[in-house]
């Protein structure tokens, strides 16, 4: 018996209970033997993980759900899987939460969000249904989780169809409360195939009224908008969303689809307007972030987590029966009107053995750490004028590595995975570049976990995320340069506690 390589629609949408138990055992064993499985990032036991959903704080715990197709590394009939945490870094598996088991979600439980109302966590999601002609129908559904963790679905949609003038590419409801009303934002597509964000409001979620399109730009947002999230940072609205088919003259990006954001002055609920919006920007300057979900936590923080993966893209782990993970949790902050993303303070709980680092940048490569097991955090501070290259996932000869090329003199950082691990997605380019302030000190904070790297630049002013699939012996950290000096710390990180 071998893992399936040629996936048909019939296989992708076959009910879970019809799958052969021996095949599922083979799949699990294959995944467990993968050398690329993460230590402290959320990942599925098998199959494909994608969008984070229902990120919330309820009954004294953090809750997070994610879309999953457990039978293979493909987009099949989706469910929601539930994990919970006391500290945002150690996530306990709670099992499947929402299964595609009713009329209005028969072909997949698609993305959505969560909101605490009274003594329940209310989950809003999109039910995906295909008719006999394989045409999509989208239904917006509600479910409720009580304090015992029991989840009950409502048997009828609370929004049964898109408004007139919009297609059934209508999904990813975000629910939140604003000025004593419940609001819902949802990604949509017009009959003219234009991407929009639609808004609903009402006194209860069951009685929401369609208010119209959210106004935040005069530019076209491509043919579809996915995963809209509106959060408020010190009362300033920040809209995160994923425009598909966005013209690259509107925003420079290289990934198949970008994950973007807009910072505005205020949200005017009467006119559905984000006033004085700033320019559209990439949320992540790297290769592999999409479908970010953010919410305003009761402790006052705006927290976000992303799918570390890309739609319609093949990854090396596919051949082992699994795909993708979630990012670490990030806190969203505003500094001078600019969105910064920083690792949550709880991330430091993973730190173990610490090593101080310091030196001059020279043309002779210096090994900072070796045999790292690719599971660490490193913070490096460079003097103004520093120019050099930091190699991660490096072999001894430096034939293979992820290169972080930094040039503070000219104000540029480049992430280069041309020669890093197993190649993939090369049609979208193997480098990503970020502009930084010239002739200023530079701080890089990196989290590496087996097959993922998350880079935070200058306190999260920019973030760049990359999947890397290293070969044997590709686990060194090496630095070289032409000018400047550095100092910092290296921590080996423990694995997530999940039992």
Q: What is the number of beta strands? A: 36
In DSSP terms, counting alpha (H) and pi (I) runs of 4 or more, how many helices?
Answer: 2
- Taking strands numbered 1, 2, ... along the chain, how are they ordered across the largest sheet? 25-36-27-32-33-34
Rg for CA atoms:
22 Å
Outline type: globular
Distance between the termini: 31 Å
Structural class: mainly beta
Beta-strand content estimate:
over 45%
By oligomeric state, this entry counts as single chain
The helix content is under 10%
Report on the structure:
Strands 25-36-27-32-33-34 form a 6-stranded antiparallel sheet, with no helix packed on it. The chain is mainly beta and 499 residues long. Helices cover 3% and strands 49% of the residues. It contains 2 helices and 36 strands. The model has no long low-confidence stretch (mean pLDDT 97). It is globular.
Give descriptors for this structure:
6-stranded antiparallel beta sheet; mainly beta; 499 residues; 2 helices; 49% strand; 3% helix; 36 strands
List the helices and strands and how they pair.
Elements: H1 9-12, H2 21-32, E1 47-58, E2 61-69, E3 79-85, E4 91-98, E5 109-117, E6 120-130, E7 136-145, E8 151-153, E9 171-178, E10 181-189, E11 195-202, E12 209-213, E13 224-233, E14 236-244, E15 260-263, E16 266-268, E17 273-275, E18 281-282, E19 290-296, E20 302-308, E21 322-323, E22 325-326, E23 330-335, E24 338-343, E25 351-360, E26 366-369, E27 375-382, E28 387-394, E29 402-407, E30 412-416, E31 431-435, E32 442-449, E33 452-457, E34 462-467, E35 476-483, E36 485-493
Parallel strand pairs: 1-21
Antiparallel strand pairs: 1-2, 2-3, 3-4, 5-6, 6-7, 7-8, 9-10, 10-11, 11-12, 13-14, 14-15, 15-18, 16-17, 19-20, 20-22, 20-23, 23-24, 25-36, 26-35, 27-32, 27-36, 28-29, 28-35, 29-30, 30-31, 32-33, 33-34
């Amino acid at each position: 018996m071998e893992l399936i390589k040629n996936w048909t629609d019939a296989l992708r949408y076959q009910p879970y209970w019809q799958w052969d138990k021996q095949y599922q055992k083979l799949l699990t064993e294959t995944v467990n033997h993968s050398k690329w499985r993460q230590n402290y990032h959320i990942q599925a036991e098998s199959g494909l993980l994608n969008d984070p959903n229902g990120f919330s704080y309820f009954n004294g715990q953090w809750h997070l759900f994610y879309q999953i197709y457990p039978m293979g590394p493909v987009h099949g009939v989706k469910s929601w899987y539930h994990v919970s945490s006391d500290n945002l870094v150690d996530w306990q598996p709670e099992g499947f939460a929402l299964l595609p088991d009713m009329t209005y979600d028969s072909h997949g439980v698609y993305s959505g969000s969560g909101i605490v109302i009274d003594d329940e966590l209310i989950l809003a999601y999109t039910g995906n249904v295909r008719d006999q002609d394989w045409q999509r129908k989208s239904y917006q559904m509600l479910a409720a989780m009580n304090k015992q963790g029991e989840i009950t679905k409502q048997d009828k949609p609370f929004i049964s169809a898109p408004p007139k003038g919009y297609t059934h590419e209508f999904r990813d409801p975000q629910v939140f409360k604003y000025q004593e009303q419940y609001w819902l934002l949802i990604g949509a597509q017009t009959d003219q195939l234009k991407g929009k964000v639609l808004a609903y409001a009402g006194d209860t979620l069951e009685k929401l009224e369609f208010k119209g399109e959210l106004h935040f730009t005069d530019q076209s947002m491509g043919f579809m908008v996915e995963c809209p999230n509106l959060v408020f940072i010190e009362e300033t609205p920040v809209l995160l969303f994923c425009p598909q088919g966005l013209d690259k003259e509107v925003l420079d990006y290289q990934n198949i689809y970008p994950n973007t954001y807009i910072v505005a002055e205020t949200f005017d609920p009467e006119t559905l307007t984000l006033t004085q919006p700033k320019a559209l920007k990439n949320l992540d300057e790297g290769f592999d972030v999409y479908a970010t979900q953010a919410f305003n936590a009761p402790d006052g923080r705006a927290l976000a987590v992303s799918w570390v993966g890309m739609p319609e893209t093949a990854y090396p782990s596919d051949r082992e029966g699994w795909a993708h993970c979630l990012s670490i949790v990030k806190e969203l902050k505003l500094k001078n009107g600019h969105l910064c993303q920083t690792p949550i303070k709880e991330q430091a709980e993973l730190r173990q053995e610490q090593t101080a680092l310091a030196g001059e940048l020279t043309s002779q490569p210096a090994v900072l750490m070796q045999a790292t097991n690719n599971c660490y955090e490193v913070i490096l501070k460079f003097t103004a004028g520093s120019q050099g290259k930091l190699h991660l996932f490096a072999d001894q000869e430096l034939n293979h590595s992820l290169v972080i090329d930094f040039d503070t003199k000219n104000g540029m950082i480049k992430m280069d995975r041309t020669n890093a691990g197993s190649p993939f997605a090369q049609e979208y380019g193997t480098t990503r570049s970020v502009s930084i302030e010239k002739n200023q000190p530079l701080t890089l904070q990196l989290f590496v976990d087996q097959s993922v790297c998350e880079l935070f630049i200058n306190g999260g002013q920019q973030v760049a995320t990359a999947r890397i699939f290293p070969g044997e012996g590709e686990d060194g950290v090496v630095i070289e340069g032409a000018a400047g000096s550095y100092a910092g710390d290296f921590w080996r990180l423990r694995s997530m506690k999940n039992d």
